[in-house]
Design goal:
- With 133 residues, the chain is mainly β.
- It has a domain of 83 residues: Sandwich (Immunoglobulin-like), CATH 2.60.40.10.
- 0% of the residues lie in helices and 35% in strands.
- A 4-stranded mixed sheet has the order 1-7-6-3, with no helix packed on it. The protein has a 3-stranded antiparallel sheet with strand order 2-5-4, with no helix packed on it.
- A hairpin with a 3-residue loop joins strand 6 and strand 7.
- It is rod-shaped.
- The N and C termini lie far apart (57 Å).
- The relative contact order is 0.24.
Length: 133
Amino acid sequence: MASTASNKNYDLGTLADDSSYQVPAFTLSPAGSPGTIIYSDAAPITGVTFDTSNRIFSWPSLGTGTYTLTMQGSLAGSTSVTTSFSLTITETTLSVTNEPVDQSYDIGKGAGTTSYTVPAFTSNPPGASITYS
């Protein structure tokens, strides 16, 4: 049995990044050999889950750092093989900016209400949820 798992970098500040990785399936050698490979997490890490049905490691709440994830494949309880890869989690700081527009009012003239509309904030990288208060 053999598999190739590549290292994974995950950036907490990148909204488009995915917090999971599907490890490639092991292959039997010679090709077409009979048997069913049973997958497991060979070195469990707190905060990481492993779905044995599709070989997906997920880490929804891990902190920054480098972790080694290891999957084991067993063939009918006889042969077992492991593959490992490094997961490096970094954090990019999101920044929020606003471009205010100068406005002036002459308080002594005219009746009515004066108001000021604050331009919307933008995030970098774009797409972050911004809460106004």
